[in-house]
Amino acid sequence: MMMNKNLVMNKDYLVPLLRKLAKTHRLVAPVRNEYGDTLFTIITDLDRTEIDLDHQPQASLKPYFFPQTDTLCRYVIDCDPATGAMDYSFHVQLPQNRPTVYVGVRSCDMFAVMYTDMVFLHEHERDVYYKQRRDNAIFITIACNTPFDNCFCNATRSGPFLESGFDLQLTDLGDRWFVETGRARGAGLTEDWACFFRPADEADKRAQFQAELEARGRFKQLVHVDLASKLLAEDKVPESIFRDLSSRCQDCGGCAFICPTCTCFNITDQPRDEAGGERVRSWDACTFSGFTAMAGGHNSVDVETGRIRRRFLHKLQYDVDRHGRPSCVGCGRCVGMCFGGVDMIRFISMISEAGENGAEAGE
Amino acid sequence: MTFGSGAMTNSIDEIGQAQVILVSGSNTTEAHPQVARRIYDAVDRGAKLIVIDPRRTRLARHAHLHLRLRPGTDIPLLNAMMRCILDENLVDDLFIEMRTENYFALRDMLLQVDPGQAAAVAGVAESDIRLAARMYARAQRSVICYCLGVTQHICGTGNVRSYANLAMLTGHVEQEFTGVDPLRGQNNVQGACDMGALPVVLTGYQSVTDPVALGKFARAWGVELSNRPGLTVLDMTHGEQIRAMLVMGENPVLSDPRQDHVIATLKGLDFLAVADIFLSETAALADVVFPVATFAEKSGTVTSSERRVQLMHQAIKPVGAARPDGQVIMALSERLGYPMRYDSEAEVMEEICLLTPIYGGIYHDRLDPGWGLQWPCVDRSHGSTQYLHKYAFARGRGRFEPAKHVAPAEAADEHYPFVLMTGRVYHHYHTGSMTRRSLSLMRECGRSLVEMHPDDGRRLGIGPGDPVRLTSRHGSCSFNADLTPRVETGYLYANFHFPESPVNVLIGDASDPIARIPEFKICAVQVERETA
């Protein structure tokens, strides 16, 4: 196994490096648009695009690997005029594989890609559509010296700095980037373009260590994720919490759509003309009542009180059972998204508080 | 009429800072989620929430006080509230003195109101009305949000005036974080009204009877203009006064009352042209249909509920033969002998600026980039206006317009024992011409349900999801039953999104005498279980 290398890059060199990489790769980086929204954007002209590394992108990288709607195949209906028999034939539509460099990816979003890999690329059950987009991706991540207002990746152990998963991890040291190489492709990249890098010296390493230390003290949110998982596993969460939060949920699905690790989908056939149509996969959300509605109209879940339960139990309990860790990466996006305030921070705060009170009452 | 302009006096963001929010006739979480978000924010910060609604809406469940009035009794309820404010000396005398007129007419009327009697009419406890009055009047920053539950009555104008009276009585207008906020529907209902899509006004609420305004338009357009008010939609779609019609982005066959009259009227026209993005039920009756561009296929501005004019950019080219509405109008006008030659949307906007004082400084280049400007914005040096009526009402002084209870046209009786209210549901939009094409939305809500109290269901032998037929004095229509305590016994609630359950066949054509808005919220019906 290759050892992680520590390098330093002058800040001025980022764009020149990306220009080199853009010759063979598509570039995706956070860009602030004229409305003040920072979004991961495909960069076609490096000179006219300003990469924004100061704000959290509003959406994660999820749509790049698992688009909101994705045509899986086209179907054609053949009708035998003699017998009237109908026959369907399916023609798979695989997305193009585009080698892509994702730049300025925050630790939480990098971690989320590793998590969705577990879902879509698990052993032999590989999702070809996801794999086609995911192959040949390079991640140049950025460690968070200053977490944003709703961030709690320290509590989910998915940031603010990562140990692995990235190709290159950049840490802002003021005038220069501290560069760590993770996967082999990242190390190769620093060798191919060695002119942009120099080895890190002791002072650089100390500065990086200092930045990492300080970042951990800068979180504004104190979120007890592990305690929440424990309370859920012990079935110590009062029913009233699910009820209260469910009553504020408006069934918009925004939390699942914005979540970097929510991967539920629905598949529908969409006729395009008489002769055929497309089979389309689109994002779904467990908070929708239609998610559990059965053909006869019966719903196995009382959505009015139970729709929130599915979501939080999946994130904090079922995934802990299955993967050994919660699937929340602490990015805080659901906090900004939900207009009813039915977000991860509020849920965990409510159950932690109830847990504490319960513990005190028990003593 | 009372303030001098029809729009939210506040900005949506201000609602989050209010101390007391009075929401009336608005299912805000479903119809205006972005407003509801601010209401939740305010409540989380400690604001008090009062909801006036016959239904136990989601917001009503979160309210500190839910006044579950009988539909159509806003006026007695508010008069009782105002009487209480008067009795307890919570009136803002200075504000009334400095900024309003006709106060004594209101006061004299209120002195004749018996709160106990009014409470009985409204079906609300008198003590709750007093509590609401104190909550609303005692806070410095109280906001009223209202919607179609207030306006869609034969006394809609009186209802709106009563809310304005309440706000002026307590001085809760013309400041930040306090005002009267009608919540508008589509992204551009406000813009349509601003552009004079009303019978009595030109753009920017300039009266068609004002010779100065009329002269200005006549000079700009080089034609003589009529100074007679036009017809209301209801007059156009019910009767024989009109011979030819161009309907743009509207589906009156489903959205107007007395569907049979609407269809007869449209079929009786000499000529009907419809411009829409899909072949709607109305378009199906047309002689000519213009396929027009969707929001993503055209440029221009929309004006939101908070008077904010925003620029939209074309994202994709129109699909197929579709054209932007503006081009359809220009081409038609050209054929009719009045060439309109606008090279761009910005050029149209320049004419709007020229002729519309409240839009005087809203040029396209000022809207891009960013989130636009809020009118009034009178010239290029004028910025955005966050809230209205600062220092003075648009009409000078705010005028108190006392209102008295008007009994609904469609009272329940022994033959039609239920009162049906109509409205919208979260997953669908108006006549469903867009939302019914979304598989996800149809999965969430795929059939037309009528809400009925479980006790009524039991009494009539109707189970959840059972087919039921509602019959009013005007027509008959089928639904599936949704048994829920959201409605009280004796009341029903249905939506008009589904062409297979065109609820407006049930609605009578009684309407408010001034605004001509139909009584969509009250309709006496009988209910029977349908045998499949």
List the helices and strands and how they pair.
The complex is a heterodimer of chains A (363) and B (532).
Chain A: E1 6-10, H1 14-22, E2 26-32, E3 38-43, H2 62-65, E4 69-79, E5 86-92, E6 100-106, H3 107-120, E7 121-122, E8 125-126, H4 128-134, E9 137-142, H5 153-156, E10 168-172, E11 176-181, H6 184-192, E12 197-199, H7 202-216, H8 225-233, H9 239-248, H10 254-258, E13 265-273, E14 276-283, H11 303-323, H12 333-337, H13 344-362
Parallel strand pairs in A: 2-6, 6-9, 9-10
Antiparallel strand pairs in A: 1-11, 1-12, 2-3, 4-5, 4-14, 7-8, 10-11, 13-14
Helix pairs in contact in A: 8-11, 8-13, 9-11
Chain B: E1 20-24, H1 28-31, H2 33-44, E2 48-52, H3 58-61, E3 65-67, H4 74-87, H5 93-99, E4 100-101, H6 103-111, H7 115-122, H8 126-138, E5 142-146, H9 148-151, H10 156-169, E6 179-182, H11 189-194, H12 211-221, H13 233-237, E7 244-248, H14 252-255, H15 259-268, E8 271-276, E9 288-291, E10 300-303, E11 308-312, H16 325-335, H17 345-355, H18 364-367, E12 373-374, E13 398-399, E14 418-423, H19 439-444, E15 449-452, H20 454-460, E16 467-472, E17 476-483, E18 491-495, E19 523-529
Parallel strand pairs in B: 1-2, 1-5, 2-3, 4-13, 5-6, 7-8, 8-9, 14-18, 15-17
Antiparallel strand pairs in B: 10-11, 11-12, 14-19, 15-18, 16-17, 16-19
Helix pairs in contact in B: 4-7, 4-8, 4-10
